[in-house]
Amino acid sequence: MGKEIFKYILLFALFLFVGALGVFGFKFVNQKLSVEQLKSPLALTQFSLETAPSLSLRGKLTTVFGDVGWESRTATEPAKLTAPRLLQQGEQITTGDNGKATIDFPNLFSAVVYAKTKLDILQTLPAHIVLGQESGTVEYLQASGNSISIRTHGLLANIQNGNAIVTVSKTLPLITIVVKKGTVTVAYNDAQQISQLQSIDAGNELFFYTNTRKTIIKPVRL
Hints:
Elements: H1 2-39, E1 59-65, E2 68-71, E3 79-81, E4 85-87, E5 92-95, E6 100-105, E7 109-113, E8 117-125, E9 128-142, E10 148-152, E11 155-168, E12 174-189, E13 195-201, E14 204-209, E15 214-219
């Protein structure tokens, strides 16, 4: 009987020793890994406020007339322009009462920015171009098979294989889109916050009322 008790005590002590050894080993390896991680340098992200991502495409402000402003990626207000310059993702173009400018992204799209307009170059990735039009009138001409999207107040317009004039009124709750060529598809939420999609073909004009979230499409003479 005494031998059997001694045997159980010996087995218990052995299990306790093995368990303690395992815990110690785990802590040692884990601590060593943590030290090695601290020693290794952190990966640096290639991000620049001044320069757009390398995959984004560059364009050019080709013509400048009258009061035209350009706001860089790091600026807080536009600087007056008197000559053409390069454009990149994240910049903004503004025109005053007598201003007018032409933008060209070769093989993608071009745009005529008319007076009293604010236009943001939001995204210029090859797969998709996104512009933000806060106010005024811009005529867009798509130059490739890719589509371009225009974000306005509560309305997203996608121009496919075409030419369209978008006007965002400063005095009325109204956005109009005249489709001169191709097709424009618009997306918006109606007054009940239900998503809506509409297509406007060439020769038609869309009226989007931002206060009621309603649309009207009428034929237009081009």
